[in-house]
Amino acid sequence: MQSRPEKPKLAWAITGSGHYLDECLEIIRDLPDVDLFYSRAGEEVIRMYGHDPKALTKDGHVYRDRAASSPPVGLFYRGDYHTLVVAPATSNTVAKMVMGLSDTLVTNVYAQAGKCRVPSIVLACDAIPEVDTPAPDRMVRLWPRAIDLAHTEKLRSFEATTVVDSAEALYETLKKRLEQVNADHG
């Protein structure tokens, strides 16, 4: 096992949504040393939208959902990360997070981040009653179900979890968090 890094870094988990995907990838590309965690659907969607999952981070590692026990969660136990971002987060992932299910790499790292008291920022795709979102070939209008909106609201009450409703809010929340981390680890 590798030794603990001198300075914890950012972990970013991507699920299988095209909603906010380009905005999230734009933020990721501007971040130094971020590790990416893909759900199986997240990796598929990245490819469907024309991106290479291996080329999105300059200095970080890429972890894929290929093992039942999600071995990369051990990195949270070692203190490798100061923050977990889950963005974009599908309604399926949000529902699993709310129910405490950890059956994908993304839901498992979210659970372990919480158990290790690592703050999480979640950009929930289903946070407003009506939304226009890009499909791979066109824009579509969606109306999230009441249950999807209820799960997003419930997730807001979870300890060490900040839920944001837009890419702009994600950017601003992450910027503040990174400023705090840099001040703490100066």
TrEMBL record:
Pfam hit, one: Flavoprotein
GO molecular function, one term: catalytic activity
Gene3D superfamilies (alphabetical): Flavin prenyltransferase-like
Coiled coil start-end: none
Domain Flavoprotein: 9-156
UniProt-recorded name of the protein: Bifunctional phosphopantothenoylcysteine decarboxylase/phosphopantothenate synthase
